[in-house]
Design brief:
The complex is a heterodimer of chains A (about 350) and B (about 425).
Chain A (H helix, E strand, L loop, with lengths): L11 E8 L3 E7 L5 E7 L5 E9 L2 E10 L3 E5 L10 E5 L3 E5 L9 E4 L5 E7 L10 E6 L4 E4 L9 E5 L8 E7 L8 E6 L3 E6 L4 E7 L4 E6 L8 E6 L3 E11 L3 E8 L5 E7 L2 E9 L3 E8 L5 E3 L5 E3 L3 E9 L5 E6 L6 E6 L3 E7 L6
Antiparallel strand pairs in A: 1-30, 2-3, 3-4, 4-5, 6-7, 7-8, 8-9, 10-11, 11-12, 12-13, 14-15, 15-16, 16-17, 18-19, 19-20, 20-21, 22-23, 23-24, 24-27, 25-26, 28-29, 29-30
Chain B lengths: L2 E2 L4 E4 L3 E7 L10 E3 L3 E6 L2 E6 L10 E5 L2 E7 L16 H98 L3 H13 L10 H16 L7 E5 L15 H16 L18 H14 L2 H14 L4 H13 L3 H14 L8 H17 L3 H14 L4 H20 L1
Parallel strand pairs in B: 1-6
Antiparallel strand pairs in B: 2-3, 3-8, 4-5, 5-6, 7-8
Helix pairs in contact in B: 2-3, 5-6, 6-7, 7-8, 7-9, 8-9, 9-10, 10-11
Classes of the chains: A mainly beta (about 350), B alpha+beta (about 425).
């Protein structure tokens, strides 16, 4: 599917491209600003945090911070808007929360895991969602831990394998369902294709399934509403969209799956301004923009009379190939609709603008 | 000898010669007329007309009309002059021949030139067409590029606008806040109507602010907002652990590394083996219908084994094997019978054959493989070939590590081996 210019399709315009001297693993917009952060690992084995500001057609480096261990992932999800502290997970299993004004000492630090923290997510901050701000980290040691920045050293929830069970790497975590002070769920994806949904209110496993291929990225369409949709992407170019409104006692959640491309789908990110539009980034350096359409009826009764969900359909709005290396990280700006940043393994970070999203 | 056509008549003007040639019944075609600058020939075998013209003519423009058994030539003179006669007088034979040949050559050359000219024009036309299409495509491409550029610029402008809005908005808000804070600090100090202000401040706190916040009075006010926020926030969760199990897989690898292919192969082999029947034995004619079915024979053999009739069981398995020698279970069971009958070598043979047929090794045929190894191991041990026996027991253990009896037997054999080594 090639870009149809002149039609009403959204176009992905590459606005700025910045070459970096290190491998970038994660890139995030600083909320309420035109600044972005790049997190990564330098060749000498140290971690780098760089803060850029968008100036016209180029990125200006405002600040560079170096840390002893390479940094894999970061989030602003659990801080307030005044503070805007960055929570990072590094290759050593340490969870740190930094004040970017004074980055010498972290505001909060804990050695959360024995191995690299693959994925991090935050909820309860930035005026989004209700309840206490919490951070969840998923690590190669097979555990998923939920942290509260007010409590040092011990996690408030720990999802670990049963004694004697061989562990699977956890590749991705996401918060969801945080629509009031008590409710919260954590969804975790593992390298053997397991997706598990943990309910933090009842401290139990609410649902699990296996999609056969390792799960690279999961995301709820919104963290702060009654859980609506969950997208899980995997190796071998497949992604699944689960309708999370109706849980059947045995069949779980209804889903639709789509095979986008032959390579791994590294990330999925929903547009903050429209929860039915999401972008997937692939191992072949391409980005695909999708729209989910709801079915006529979202739930129906099965033969025993219990409710089961009906999955809708996904359609491709646009795709573009930006690089030859995988695009490993993607973030939409929460302030400007259509502005996004992506970081790829060819050591470049690109700022893109997706046009005509109003017309979808 | 050609028949000469001599009854021609001609007349002339200053610029042209009009020649009329009656054909005496012969049919003329355009191919029978040959004309060059000074030579004209009409050849319709056996008739022949030839003329060496008085002066050169323009043969490209001259015409010949074939009509009513006549040919009318309209020859345009190269030089306007009156000819004394149509043909050159006193033309001797040699001159004639020379002129003829010349004419032919000239005609050839002309033909060549014409083809050359045609080719060149064709090429030029092609080139032109190609260039035209290329231009069109270029234009199309440019159009698309322009559209894209316009989009880009539009979008960049919008971004700038938004950024400036952000900055202005922030400045305005921060100025506003400073004023309001100055106003509110007095009521705060009085500690009256704090409730109203307190509820206002947290709202201010969550509105847009810049990363670099001003200190001073802002700091004291933000303390208030922090306390309030904490009152609104629930306390940290009670620590708890959720235990998880991972999806059990025989092969703990992703789909792309699974052994599905081998499992498929195994199933396929089994299906094939079942279908195959060695039906070219003459003794089969004596058998009843059911006795020709290897599965039925296998069941019969199993029953006899259970009752202790080992020889009967062996017979049944033999017949089944003759019918279908690809079923590994037949060999396996026959090996068990031979063990009971103490035909140890035969037992080893049969177990080996069974193992051969049980490739590729997949979970489906685990049980069978374990049995085969155990039986062969037992046979070896009874033949006092303890090392080979141990090998087989260890292979069985590898497939099924949880089987206690196999473990114990393997231990026994190890002891035996050590015992014999010590004593010898």
């Amino acid at each position: 599917m090639s870009a149809a210019v002149g039609a009403d399709r959204p176009q992905v315009v590459s606005h700025v491209q910045q070459a970096l001297s290190y491998t970038v693993f994660d890139c995030k917009w600083v909320p309420r600003s035109a600044r972005l952060l790049c997190l990564g690992s330098a060749a000498r084995g140290t971690g780098i945090i760089q803060l850029y500001e968008l100036h016209g057609a180029r990125l200006e480096l405002l600040r560079e911070i170096e840390k002893p261990k390479p940094i894999k992932c970061g989030t602003f999800g659990a801080t307030s808007l005044q503070q805007r502290y960055l929570a990072t997970g590094d290759f050593d299993g340490n969870l740190n929360i930094w004040n970017l004004e004074a980055p010498e000492m972290p505001v909060y630090s804990v050695k959360g895991h024995k191995e690299i923290i693959n994925s991090i997510d935050g909820v309860g901050g930035l005026g989004i969602g209700e309840g206490a701000p919490e951070i969840v980290t998923g690590s190669r040691d097979g555990t998923v831990k939920v942290w509260d920045p007010r409590q040092n050293d011990t996690p408030v929830a720990n999802m670990e394998p049963v004694q004697g069970e061989s562990k699977r790497d956890c590749w991705t975590v996401a918060f969801g369902n945080a629509y009031n002070q008590e409710e919260r769920v954590v969804c975790a994806g593992y390298d053997n294709g397991d997706i598990k949904l943990f309910d933090l209110k009842t401290m139990s496993l609410r649902w699990e399934t296996n999609i056969k291929n390792g799960v690279c990225s999961v995301e709820f369409d919104r963290k702060d509403i009654n859980m609506n949709k969950l997208v899980a992407t995997s190796l071998e170019g497949k992604f699944h969209v689960f309708d999370m409104r109706t849980q059947h006692p045995t069949k779980g959640f209804a889903s639709v799956s789509e095979k986008a491309q032959k390579s791994t789908i590294w990330q999925v990110r929903h547009l903050p301004q429209n929860r039915d539009v999401f972008m997937t980034s692939g191992g072949s350096g391409s980005l695909h923009l999708w729209k989910y359409e709801y079915p006529a009826q979202r739930s129906k009764k099965d033969s025993e009379g219990s409710e089961m969900g009906v999955a809708g359909a996904v359609s491709l709005l646009q795709n573009v190939t930006l690089s030859t290396q995988p695009i490993s990280s993607l973030d939409w700006s929460p302030d400007k609709k259509g502005l996004c940043v992506c970081g790829a393994f060819d050591q470049t970070v690109r700022v893109l603008i997706v046009t005509r999203l109003n017309k979808i | 000898m050609p028949v000469w056509l001599r009854e021609h008549s001609w007349r002339q003007t200053l610029t042209a010669v009009y020649l009329s040639l009656p054909l005496r019944g012969a049919r003329a075609t355009p191919g029978s007329i040959f004309c060059s600058e000074q030579y004209l020939k009409v050849s319709i075998p056996p008739f022949l007309f030839e003329a060496i013209l008085y002066a050169p003519i323009d043969d490209t423009n001259s015409t010949a009309k074939i009509r009513n058994g006549n040919i009318f030539f309209t020859l345009y003179k190269k030089e306007p002059a009156m000819w004394d006669s149509l043909t050159l007088a006193n033309a001797d034979k040699e001159k004639l021949q020379y002129l003829r040949e010349n004419a032919v050559l000239k005609a050839h050359e002309k033909a060549k030139e014409e083809t050359e000219a045609k080719k060149i024009t064709k090429q030029e036309h092609k080139k032109y067409a190609l260039e035209a299409t290329m231009k069109l495509e270029e234009e199309e491409r440019k159009r698309i590029e322009d559209l894209k550029e316009k989009e880009r610029q539009k979008v960049a402008k919008e971004l700038e606008l938004w950024k400036n809005q952000q900055k202005d908005g922030d400045k305005y808000k921060s100025m506003q806040k400073r004023e309001e804070l100055h106003q509110e600090i007095e009521p705060l100090k009085e500690r009256k109507s704090e409730k109203i202000n307190k509820t206002q401040i947290p709202n201010e706190g969550t509105s847009k602010t810049r990363l670099k916040s001003t200190k001073g009075c802002r700091g004291s006010c933000s303390i208030f907002s922090q306390n309030l926020k904490e009152e609104q926030l629930p306390s940290p969760r009670a620590a708890a652990t959720i235990k998880v199990n991972f999806t059990p897989r025989v092969f703990p690898t992703a789909l792309r590394e699974s052994r599905v292919a081998e499992e498929e192969e195994w199933l396929h082999k089994q299906a094939e083996a079942r279908r195959m029947i060695n039906s070219d034995l003459s003794e089969l004619e004596d058998l009843k219908e059911e006795e020709k079915n290897p599965d039925w024979l296998k069941d019969k053999g199993n029953k006899m084994f259970a009752m202790g009739d080992y020889l009967g069981a062996v017979n049944a398995y033999n017949l089944a094997v003759r019918l279908n020698n690809k079923l590994p279970l037949l060999y396996l069971n026959r090996a068990a019978c031979h063990l009971k009958l103490r035909n140890l070598h035969k037992a080893i043979e049969d177990s080996s054959k069974a193992l051969e047929l049980l490739t590729p090794p997949v979970p489906n045929n685990e049980n069978a493989r374990v049995k085969a190894h155990v039986r062969r191991g037992t046979a070896f041990c009874q033949l006092e070939l303890y090392t080979e026996g141990l090998q087989d027991y260890e292979a069985a253990l590898k497939i099924d590590p949880r089987n206690k009896t196999i473990e114990e037997d393997a231990e026994k054999i190890r002891h035996l081996i050590q015992g014999t080594m010590q004593s010898s």
